[in-house]
Amino acid sequence: MIGYRSIGVCTDGTLDPTPGIAEARTLLAPSGTLRLVHATRRAPLVAAGPPAPGAGAENPVEGARAWLEGVAASEGVEPVLLVSDDPCGAVCEWAAGAGLGLLVAAPRHSRLERAILGSFTSDLAHRAHCPVLLTRAPAGVAWDDADGVGTVAAVVDEGPAATLVVHAARAAGPGRLVLVHAVDAGIIARLGRSDLAAPGWLIDLAEAEDADDVVVVAGGAGDVCDWAANAPAGLLVAAARNAPGPARIGSFTNALAVHAPCPVLVARTAVV
To answer: What predicted TM-score, i.e. pTM, was given to this entire model?
Structure first.
């Protein structure tokens, strides 16, 4: 499959949704459907920062609907308004029922959220039935509707989830596929190795999936992000780890999503 047949771009109305829409278009299959999704409460919560669409209107839901329809019309996409006290749950339920192949969301970046993704984004990546693309404004990476995202890096570990991550990367559309494996630098030192030879399972996976290249990075998520910036990679794909606690997609994938220089696609490897 080249691209996703149906994509939903999530917006809370406090961030400009157009970059997410633009990135979604690069992953959309020909004749695919693109929707702009906004989940609102009947009585929006009062919080610091920009107000949610419709928050000051006499009827907040209708105010949000008017805002959403206006943005969707200007971008030529289909609007979807959901009303629920559990916005993330509503989006996940709607996406599963609509048969979406991909959800797109923007991580927030307050002081705390630099370390942990915003609760909606983290919950979405944890609970959604489909992959979730966490958008980023890439520096020095050309985005082209015809050519896709260029280099797609599937970040993998040994195990059955690796194949699912690679398949999610393939679904992103045409582009150069690179398999990236991070090895703790301390492990390499203890083994007395100075090289970063690719392990046999990684080579076998690359051959089975017809990948263009394999890369072994010494270190953790930050080192993978550095590699992605230098490559440059247009998209990183990693598995949702389904970890407990605030960073519910797992600390490694969470760190990628917060610090990567390009969008990160969180691949669903198990439905929770």
So the answer is: 0.76
